[in-house]
């Protein structure tokens, strides 16, 4: 049950900050102490075994199963020294959450408990009951077998708990037919597909010695913090992770005084502790600051291989929630916990690279001469244009719909921002050939004591969903609570397709006798002519862009229900099948799971809305109405004018709440659908508007009912008391 608003406020104001852990080890010494990483392996494994496992981690060479026993044994010894009593295969089901199945290292029998052998096969494969994870019809409940398989490329780690530690082993999760039931398997497959095509392209540029091309990801994570007492006083946040009610605060973010403002002490304490925990797990947390809204913050790690970044991102969200709890706060990762207040996203920065050449998206100072870079950029431009609908679908969820397609960054239309310098180079290419690059300027500060600062060759554009930011692209549409797997799978796969296309074009032209540089020019010109429509450097929030984008033929998929069916269109089905990332069945299943989750999310929100309206808001309003009516009777009896406009307004709002509540309840009652698509369409078209009506009436009541009777902590209270 929840606590009352009064109790919450009292408890929050009595909060005292936990003592700062100054005695703890320096941050640098903590990095990776809980990780069975390469340095731990090097210390503990025979040289030949270490060499083999390194080759698997770094170059994706298949793991030699004969070394599994040796690795498992070393890992177990390491984990037990770290206080672990159990081990868990960690996997990433289609819900987007992280799942764990724990087993004990100890084997209890009649004579007591002895240390179990942790064999190679136990490390390599597990078998959790898969029947309670969504699978989109890939498996009937009678065929419950699912397997977890060790992903050697992601290191095992220790998860601490005051009561005992656990060795966590990152795995993939597949059905007994070998179909992917998780977010990790397609990510690994897409990385491999992209790498294969990128190596092919690099060969054309004379780089024959490249072993692999890696996609990198760095995800900036936005989040809110509220005091835990408010959390426990808001049943809507407890069940749905967002507020379903709440009038706009008198002071919102109009003053722009929170962004990059001084971090409140209590929050800073949390952030310092969080960094320490993340470091222990080898997660390279780097940047922290306030975000736009009050109570909103951001954390950015240093980018890593996207497969590893994915696992780290999942673990990071878990650790954020845990550390917040230790500090008496709740960390909200929902995309829109507070209506009318800035929402939270997860900007996924990505690039490609390898150990020989570094970052392949680095333009250098003269991008017009860096043809290899331009070809990779062209691949991205083509991919984003051709598969914009797929990219949109890859970030679709009930919660992210509150950002995309609503009046918030970024819009649901997927376009690319190139920045001034690169745009100019592609403009020249379109006209026949690039001969110069705009130089980056020097900022004149007008203060003699300050050295001149170098300006970037292009400004930023905050409204673009897909922006070139100097040496990487930033996909800004993913949701704050989302796994980065879906967007990275989409990006890797469309890159595989585009790079394949460009490499084939170049091969064909050169085979016909065209000189290589001329062939590159032809291909670049073709891409910019055919796909330039996706480039947009203007204001993505403006209404004019909605019209222009439509004229350019760009999709504007506002809701999940609009976007997700696109996933399984023939074109996308072919794409995923061609590169071995997802079979048609796997793709179809994923589509159904997203829609099912969407419908369920909204159904739960609708039920919670009805319950709070009925059991908390309506009673408060009726009590107040009774009080005012009683006063009117006394006032009249005293021979005075008893007309009270407040009572009239209140009664109108009470009636409105009653009517809208009745129709919401009817809507919930009638929830149905023959398919996931029908159910989610019903949720979109019937439940969402019905909830909105209840909310309007309830929020009106919040501004009318006496403050001492109002049951829910207000936006002002939750967002500003920390
Ligand atoms: P900004 O506020 O400019 O977006 P942040 O420092 O908040 O920058 O975050 C930038 C993110 O981009 C970080 O996670 C960073 O590691 C990541 N990043 C930087 N360079 C690359 C790259 N080459 N590839 C992928 N991600 C990168
Ligand atoms: Mg940032």
UniProtKB/TrEMBL annotation:
Protein's organism: Williamsia phyllosphaerae
Family: Belongs to the glutamine synthetase family.
Source domain of life: Bacteria
PANTHER family xref list: GLUTAMINE SYNTHETASE, TYPE-3 GLUTAMINE SYNTHETASE
Any coiled-coil regions, as ranges: none
Span of domain GS beta-grasp: 85-178
InterPro entries, alphabetized: Gln-synt_C, Gln_synt_N, Gln_synth/guanido_kin_cat_dom, Gln_synth_cat_dom, Gln_synth_gly_rich_site, GS_Type-3, GSIII_N
PROSITE patterns associated with the record: GLNA_ATP, GS_BETA_GRASP, GS_CATALYTIC
Boundaries of every GS catalytic domain copy: 191-617
Name of the featured protein: Glutamine synthetase
């Amino acid at each position: 049950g929840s606590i009352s608003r009064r109790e919450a406020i009292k408890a929050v104001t009595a909060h005292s900050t936990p003592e700062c852990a100054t005695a703890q080890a320096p941050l640098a010494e903590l990095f990776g102490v809980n990780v069975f990483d390469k340095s731990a392996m090097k210390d503990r494994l025979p040289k030949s075994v270490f060499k083999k496992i390194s080759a698997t981690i770094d170059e994706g060479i298949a793991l030699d199963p004969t070394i599994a026993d040796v690795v498992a044994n070393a890992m177990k010894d390491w984990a037990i020294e770290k206080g672990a009593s159990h081990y868990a295969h960690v996997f990433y089901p289609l819900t987007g959450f992280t799942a764990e199945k724990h087993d004990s290292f100890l084997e209890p029998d009649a004579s007591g408990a002895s240390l179990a052998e942790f064999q190679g096969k136990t490390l390599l494969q597990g078998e959790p009951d898969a029947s309670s994870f969504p699978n989109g019809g890939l498996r009937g409940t009678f065929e419950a077998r699912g397997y977890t398989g060790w992903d050697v490329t992601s290191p095992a780690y220790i998860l601490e708990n005051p009561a005992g530690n656990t060795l966590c082993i990152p795995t993939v999760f597949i059905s007994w037919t070998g179909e992917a039931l998780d977010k990790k398997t397609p990510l690994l497959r897409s990385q491999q597909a992209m790498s294969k095509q990128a190596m092919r392209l690099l060969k054309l540029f004379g780089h024959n010695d490249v072993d692999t091309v890696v996609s990198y990801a760095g995800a900036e994570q936005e989040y809110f913090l509220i005091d835990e007492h408010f959390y426990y006083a808001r049943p809507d946040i407890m069940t749905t992770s967002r507020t379903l009610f709440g009038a706009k605060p008198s002071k919102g973010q109009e003053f722009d005084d929170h962004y990059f403002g001084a971090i409140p002490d209590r929050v800073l304490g949390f952030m310092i502790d969080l960094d320490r925990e993340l470091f222990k797990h080898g997660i390279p947390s780097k940047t922290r600051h306030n975000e736009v809204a009050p109570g909103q913050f951001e954390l950015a790690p240093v980018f890593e291989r996207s497969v590893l970044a994915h696992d780290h991102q999942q673990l990071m969200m878990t650790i954020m929630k845990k550390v917040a709890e230790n500090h008496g706060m709740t960390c909200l990762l929902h995309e829109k916990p507070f209506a009318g207040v800035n929402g939270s996203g997860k900007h996924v920065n990505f690039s490609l690279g390898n150990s020989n050449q570094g970052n392949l998206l680095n333009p250098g100072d003269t991008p017009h001469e860096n043809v290899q870079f331009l070809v990779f950029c062209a691949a991205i431009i083509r991919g984003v244009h051709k598969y914009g609908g797929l990219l949109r679908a890859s970030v679709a969820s009930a919660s992210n719909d509150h950002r995309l397609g609503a009046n918030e960054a970024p819009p649901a239309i997927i376009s690319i921002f190139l920045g001034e310098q690169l745009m100019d180079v592609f403009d020249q290419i379109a006209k026949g050939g690039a001969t110069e690059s705009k130089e980056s300027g020097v900022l004149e500060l007008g203060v003699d004591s300050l050295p001149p600062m170098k300006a970037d060759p292009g400004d930023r554009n905050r409204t673009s969903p897909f922006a070139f930011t100097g040496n990487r692209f930033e996909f800004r549409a993913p949701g704050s609570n989302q796994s980065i797997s879906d967007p990275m799978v989409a990006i890797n796969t469309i890159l595989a397709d585009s790079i394949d296309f460009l490499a084939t074009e170049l091969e064909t032209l050169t085979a016909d006798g065209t000189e290589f540089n001329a062939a590159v020019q032809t291909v670049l010109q073709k891409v910019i002519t055919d796909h330039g429509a996706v480039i947009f450097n203007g204001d993505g929030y403006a209404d004019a862009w909605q019209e222009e984008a439509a004229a350019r033929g760009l999709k504007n998929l506002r809701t999940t229900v609009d976007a997700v069916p696109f996933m399984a269109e023939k074109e996308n089905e072919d794409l995923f099948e061609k590169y071995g990332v997802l079979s048609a069945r796997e793709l179809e299943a994923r589509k159904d799971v997203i829609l099912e989750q969407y419908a369920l999310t909204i159904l739960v929100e609708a039920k919670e809305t009805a319950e709070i309206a009925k059991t908390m808001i309506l009673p408060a309003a009726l009590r107040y109405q009774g009080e005012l009516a009683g006063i009117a009777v006394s006032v009249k009896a005293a021979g005075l004018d008893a007309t009270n406009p407040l009572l009239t307004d209140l009664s109108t709002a009470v009636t409105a709440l009653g009517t809208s509540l009745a129709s919401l309840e009817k809507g919930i009652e009638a929830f149905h659908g023959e398919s996931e698509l029908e159910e989610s369409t019903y949720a979109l078209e019937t439940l969402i508007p019905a909830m909105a009506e209840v909310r309007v009436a309830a929020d009106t009541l919040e501004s009318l009912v006496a403050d001492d009777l109002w049951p829910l902590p207000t936006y002002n209270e939750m967002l500003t008391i920390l």
